[in-house]
Amino acid sequence: MSSRIFINQLDRPSEGLPERNTEVRAFHESLPNYKPTPLVSLPKIAKDLGIGYLLLKDETERLGLTAFKILGASWATYRALTKRLGLIEKDGPPNLGNPSAIPLRTLAEAAQAAEITLYAATDGNHGRAVARMANYLGIKARIFVPSWLDEEAKFKIRNEGAGVQAYDGDYDQTVLATKAAAEQHAEGKGVLISDTALTVDDETASSIVEGYQTMFDEIEEQVLEITGNNTVTHVVTPVGVGSLAQAVVTHFERTPRPTKSMIITVEPKAAACLKTSLEAGEMTSIETGYTICSGMCCGTLSAIGWPILNGGVKAAVAVEDSDVDTAIKNLQTCGINAGPCGAASLAGLEYILSTGGLDLGPNSTVVLLCTEGKRGYQMRD
Q1: Using one digit for the tens of pLDDT, what is the confidence trace for 93-137?
Q2: Separation between Cα atoms, residue 177 and residue 194, nearest integer Å
Q3: Which of 107, 114, 196, 230, CA to CA, is 20 to 30 A from 333?
Q4: Which residues contact 170 (CB under 8 A, 6 or more apart)?
Q5: Distance between CA atoms of 178 and 157, rounded to whole angstroms?
Q6: Spatial distance between the Cα atoms of 138 and 94, rounded to a whole number of angstroms
Q7: Does Lipid metabolism show up as a keyword for this record (predicted)?
Q8: What is the pTM (predicted TM-score) of this model?
Q9: CA distances from 226 to 43, 55, 222, 295 (A)
Q10: How far apart are CA 38 and CA 105, in angstroms?
Q11: What is the Cα–Cα distance from 123 to 298, expressed in whole angstroms?
C-alpha cells in the first residue's frame, strides 16, 4: 500500500452522533440567493475510472459565494448571536419561537444596537463567508489571515466590507491570535466564529458542522433523482481542520441505506494532519508546507472532529499538488470550474484507484464534494 494512503482498520461506527436538525435547511432557505447546488453526473470520468456512477456536488457557487463555507458560517453566526443577544435562552426554548423563524432583520437590529464585531481566522473561504454574514447584519467583521495568504483571497474578504489583518504565523497560530483578539474586544462585543474547535465543548464550531447538513439534504434528494435509489457506496471529501469531514461522517452514518457508505478523505501531502493522526492513533499536529490547496493548509484537526473521524473514515489519501492541478483541468473539460480544494476530491479518488487501495467498480456510486470555485494559484517544484 502506498505511503500516501492510510486504510483505517477500526471500521466501527462513531459514537454520540447528533440527530439531524430540521431547522438548518429552513434557515438557509431564508437567506438571499438560496437554491440547491447541482449534483453533476460525470459519466466519462466514471467510465475511465471503471466505476458505475461518479456524482460531483458542485459547491463552486453557493449563496452568492464561490465555496460551501457560507452554510456553516451563516448558521453558526445565527446561533451564536441569538444566544449572545438573548433572542433564545442559552439552554432553553427560544424566546421568539423557532430560531429559524427569527428574521435576519430582527437579528441585525439587535446586533447593531449591541455593537457586535465578528471575528474569524481563515485561509480564504471561511473568512469571506463570515464577512458576508456581517454584511447581511450591518455589523463589523475582523478577519485574521496567515501572512502567506494570496492577495486575491484577501481582496475578496475586504470586498465584503470586513477588515483583514495578516498574522505572521501559520494557520494554527492565526487561529489562536484571532481567539485572543475576540476575547480582548471591549465590553465583550467581539464574537468569534471559528470553524475549528480548540476544546470539545465549542458550541460555535459544532454549529459550523451542523450548518453543512443542508448540503447533504440536497445530495440525498439528488442521488435519488439521478440513480433511482439512495445507494451511495463512497463519499470523497477534502479535509482542512476536519469540520466538513465530520459532517460527512455524521450524515452518512446516521442515514439508513442498503449499503454503508465508505468515507474517503483527501488532504494535500504538505498538510495531511488527519492522515497523520489516523496513523498515530491519536490527534497529532504537524508542521505544514506550501500547497496550492491553501484552504486545506491546516496543521491541527478540530477537537470535536477527531473522535468522529477516528472511527468513521475508511481511507485517508494525501495528494500531490500536481495531481490536483491535473484534476482541475479534467473537471474543466466537464464544465466544472473548480479551485484546488474543490478538485482535490477527484485527485484523491484517481490516486486511490490507481493503487487498488479500495474495492471500487461498476457497482460503485461515488459522491465527490467539490468545495470551492476557481481561484488563482501558483505551482511550485
Answers
A1: 444 445 557 899 999 999 999 999 999 999 889 999 999 999 999
A2: 12
A3: 230
A4: 146, 287, 288, 297, 299
A5: 16
A6: 23
A7: no
A8: 0.94
A9: 12, 9, 6, 30
A10: 29
A11: 9
- Domains of the chain as residue ranges with CATH: 5-67+210-370 (3.40.50.1100), 70-194 (3.40.50.1100)
Contact assessment for residue 307 and residue 135, using Cβ atoms and an 8 Å cutoff: no
Q: Is 189 exposed, middle or buried (0-12, 13-18, 19+ CB in 10 A)?
A: middle
Nearest of 365, 336, 23 to residue 219 by alpha carbon: 365
Give the cell for residue 219: 445530495
Which of 336, 261, 283, 279 minimizes the C-alpha distance to 59? 336
Rounded Cα–Cα distance for residues 42 and 59 (Å): 15
Compute the distance between CA of residue 289 and CA of residue 286 in angstroms, rounded to an integer: 10
Separation of alpha carbons 176 and 133, rounded Å: 22
* Residue 245, all three cell numbers: 469531514
70-84 vs 203-211: helix crossing angle, rounded to 10: 140
Q: C-alpha distances in angstroms, 290 versus 74, 171, 195, 265?
A: 29, 12, 21, 19
Q: How confident is the model at residue 381 (pLDDT cuts 50, 70, 90)?
A: confident
Q: What type of residue sits at position 99?
A: P
User: 124 is written with which cell numbers?
Assistant: 480564504
Amino acid of residue 5:
I
Yes or no: say if 312 and 10 are a contact pair by the CB < 8 Å rule.
no
